[in-house]
Structures are given as structure tokens and as C-alpha cells.
Amino acid sequence: MKKIILVFSVLLNLTLGFSQDTIFVSDVNTTYLIFPKTVDLLDVGNPTEYYGKIEDKAVLLKAVKTNTNKSTLLVRSGEAYFHYLVMYHQEPKKYYYDYSKTKDKTTETIEEVKADETGGTAPSVKNLKNMQGKVDSIVNIKGENKTLGVLSDFLQAAVTVIRNDKENTYLKVVIKNLSSIPYKFDFIGFQYFQVMKKGFMNKTKNAPLDVFPIIYPKSGEISANSTAVVGYAIPQFGLANNGYLVVSFREKTGDRVLKIRIDSGLIQSAKYFNY
Predict the structure, then answer these.
(1) Which of 51-60, 136-145, 154-163, 250-259 comes out lowest in average pLDDT?
(2) pTM, whole model, 2 decimals?
(3) 3-class SS of residue 40
(4) Partners of 84 in the beta sheet?
(5) What percent of the chain is predicted at pLDDT more than 70?
(6) Which residue blocks in the chain are alpha helix, DSSP H?
(7) CA dihedral angle for residue 205, residue 210, residue 211, residue 212, rounded to 10 degrees
(8) Exposed / middle / buried, residue 229 (Cβ in 10 Å: 0-12, 13-18, 19+)
(9) β-bridge mates for residue 73, sequence order
(10) What gap in Å lies between CA 56 and CA 162, rounded to an integer?
(11) According to the model, what pLDDT value does residue 33 have?
(12) DSSP string spanning 50-79?
């Protein structure tokens, strides 16, 4: 029974896209996060609200000002990714978070999730395999969208196929490296934006929501003068008609950044997986 509960917990974390942990940070004292291996990636979803700094295996966080808005936080320690929600607190009860012996649940593979004692396959394992199968299928579909792309001097990226099921959105991404230098992307980020009216004269404000992929490719490098075709499954979010999704490609050893905007209407009208 305990193993069944664990499996559902793993799926819950994957579906939400971030760990259950919330990090409370003030603008007076620094909050410290300790990880098992050297941290080589730190991404604060709302960088105007929180400062973040890497010190070997530690991450240092501090709020920019009082009563800041919440933010997502992505940390890569070795091969493991850790996802958190960061919130402001004037006097946090805790300033030190030790994750040095913690394994990030989102790095577990399908094979690592165990079945229950009866020998049956747990529902979450089936669900993950089903999602992987859908990602594999869209990678093999001929490109349908011709306008969702961006171009730099030596790099092209495009979202060519979109599919939905009742919980997730699936994307086929084609990346062309036109240079003689390998393209090593730090990560591909996904942000939903809601356009909200706010304040005097109904001025609009774009409110971003970071989401983390459930299914994603393991390789993070595209060889020189070559093309990579990859698939992603990300949690759905109910966007209004003027909302949109931004897919960002950030390079690990350079400053090349590409962004693709996908309007909500295109996502909502995409074909549906009925299995």
C-alpha cells in the first residue's frame, strides 16, 4: 500500500511541474539551499522579485523588497533538477534548507517507479508510459505549423506539431544548428502568459506562469551543422483567448536565446489525443 501512495505522489509532482516544497525568503536575511552536487543552473522565474546566487553546492536567495510576489525556482545539481515555489515572508521560521541527501522525484524514470506488492502495474506508471508514447508519436508526424519559428544568425527553432489530451499539451520542436559549433542548450523553458487588465485606464499586465515539462529529451546538445527533432509534454493551463505560451531556448555555453510565442487559440484548436 505504501508503494501505491508513493507512485501517486510521484505522478502528482510530475503533473504539477514543481516539488511540494515552498521556500520562504525575506528581504533582510539570506536563505540558503544546499544540494548534493555542484549547482550549474539557477533560474528564478520572477527575477525582478528575488536575487539568486550560486556558490558551489549552495544557492543563496533574497527578496528584492518587502511583500514581493511569488516565483518559481529551478535548480540543477549534477544531473538532477529541483523545482520549488518561492514566497516572501518577513520573518521566515527557516533560513537553511538541506537537500544534500535528497533525490529529486522528477528525475525518476518510469522503470524506477515500483509496482505494488500484488505484482500489478500502478496507474501512474501506465500514465507515464502513455505520455511517452504520445510524445514519440508527435515526433514522427510531418510538420503542420509553418509560422511558429524563430531565426538567429546560426540557429533556427520551430514548433511544428501541437496535440492535447485532457491534462497535457504535446509539442514537437525542431532545432537546426547552422553553425560549426555544437549548440548546448541549458534548458528549454515554458511560460504561460495571461493578459490581465489592471489599474488606471485598464492598462494591461502580462502575468507569467512557469511550467516544467513532464516528458522531455535526455540529450541537451545539437551537433554542428545538424538538426534535432524532440518532443515535450507539459501540463495544460486554462488560458483566456488573449493568453499565450512562450517557449524559450537558452544556450548553456553562450548567449544565444530564442523565444517562440504560441497564441492560446492555436493551442486550444490543436488536434486531440483520444487514447
Answers:
(1) 250-259
(2) 0.60
(3) strand
(4) 73
(5) 75
(6) 2-16, 123-139, 264-268
(7) 160
(8) middle
(9) 44, 84
(10) 39
(11) 94
(12) EEEEEETTEEEEEESSTTPPPEEEEEEETT
